Recover the amino acids of this structure.
């Protein structure tokens, strides 16, 4: 995967903390560490928010060629930044609510993918954990909130969550192609009746 803004932030802030530590600035180091973890978590959640909405808009635009009606509707309602957090049930360990938005067939398709690919399931859970922790941070007094995870743990969860977001468009495409192939199959003939 390519280097993201979250990767760069993690590297830069890790270097900054090391400089403070090397200079013996323990209280500044501690303060930087606390703020760094929060910034990293917000950056990861924001990045996923942006990427997921962008991928979905591209998907809708691709599947409604010659017309912007569907993609504009999606952009202005379901996929706008104020509605993003309503697409998921952040307190759960699955993305069923999100999958169901595309229909029960897609939900079944994705649940099978999770069963067949345990690493993908881990990615979904990590994605939801980032969103859940982000919500707690911003809704429970950001400045006073104590984040239990350290920066390295947050970064590892972010890395683990990436495949869910990055693979989502290919999952949608695979599902659409499977449905098109099923519709193209002949639906039986009189010769099939015993």
């Amino acid at each position: 995967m390519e280097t993201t803004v979250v990767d760069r932030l993690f590297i830069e802030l890790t270097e900054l903390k090391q400089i403070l530590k090397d200079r013996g600035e323990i209280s500044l180091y501690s303060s930087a560490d606390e703020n760094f973890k929060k910034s990293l978590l917000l950056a990861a959640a924001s990045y996923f928010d942006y990427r997921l909405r962008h991928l979905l808009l591209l998907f809708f635009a691709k599947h409604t060629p010659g017309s912007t009606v569907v993609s504009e509707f999606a952009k202005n309602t379901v996929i706008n930044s104020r509605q993003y957090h309503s697409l998921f049930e952040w307190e759960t360990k699955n993305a069923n609510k999100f999958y169901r938005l595309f229909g029960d067939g897609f939900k079944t398709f994705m649940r099978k993918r999770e069963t067949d690919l345990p690493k993908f399931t881990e990615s979904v859970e990590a994605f939801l954990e980032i969103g859940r922790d982000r919500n707690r941070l911003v809704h429970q007094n950001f400045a006073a909130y104590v984040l239990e995870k350290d920066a390295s743990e947050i970064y590892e969860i972010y890395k683990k969550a990436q495949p869910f977001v990055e693979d989502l468009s290919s999952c949608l495409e695979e599902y659409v192609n499977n449905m098109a192939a099923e519709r193209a199959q002949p639906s039986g003939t009189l010769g099939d009746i015993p």
User: Anything to note?
Assistant: The mean pLDDT is 89.
